[in-house]
Design goal:
The chain has 12 helices and 13 strands. The protein is of the alpha/beta class. Helix 3 crosses helix 4, helix 7 packs across helix 12 and helix 9 runs parallel beside helix 11.
Length: 314
Amino acid sequence: MRIGIVVDSACDLPRDFLTENDVRIMPITLRIGDLLIEDRRDPEETQAFYVRHLDRKSEDFAESIPYSVEQIESLFLERLVLDYDYVFCLTITSTRSPIFDHAMKASRGILGRYKTVRSASGLPERFGLAVVSTRNLFTGQAVPVAEAVRLIRAGGTPSDIGKRLRELVEQTHTYLVPADLFHIYRRASKKGDKSLSWGSYTLGSWLDVKPILHCHRDVTTTIDKVRGFEAGAEQIFVKAVKRVRDGLDTPYICISYGGQPEVVRGLPGYAVLAETASGHGAEILVSPMSKTAAVNVGPGAMSLAFAASGHCPN
């Protein structure tokens, strides 16, 4: 059975990993002023985007526009139902984007029309589709996607893979430290997210105090505050080192950065994490933060995620 994976472009995984494992992308369109830009997870385009667009600060400057129901239907009926016999569609948390809702609505049309498409191409009529909200953001979306790739490679069945992914979603934790509080405060407040208050934004801007954000099961909260971005990154790495030593539910640590990924390897605490991960059979996947993430949390932010049962974020 040919099993495929499709994700939206907010999923922070390296482009090489996505290409090598044939993970398909649903692009997200960004409106930057009057300009429309497509987020396709192209590394060069993403770095150029950081330079050209994210130095401007205006409350209504940027917004993301996800694939519509009709666009998702077209993607599946024109390509995916022919390329695969079963597809997992893993989306960003439904509390931050309508992509999951759009995919669920599209699935009804897809499942009602795929037989005609496959039959016309001489394929067996049977086709399956599972839409899964990862209940997380950015690297938190990446962790279950990486696990899905591993399970497909291992010859897992759709039912076994689906069950495992739904379990993993509940145990995935994402940490994020912003470099610039403006974007994360403005974008979050427009969406009704109170994880960063006006007082914290103002004080943090004056004193270079950065919040450590944590996302788990659709909920994003501030769990700590530190002086300076590098101190925040180091604290996140320390948490990850401890968790790796205590045990992970899947052998992946996903990291993304709103700039050149090489910067991550030079941050304090990364070398210890890399050594610990290697010694415990875990793989670190470092990628540029997506354009979609960057318009919400700003350039220079770092996100890290892993899956671990019983993990305490504080």
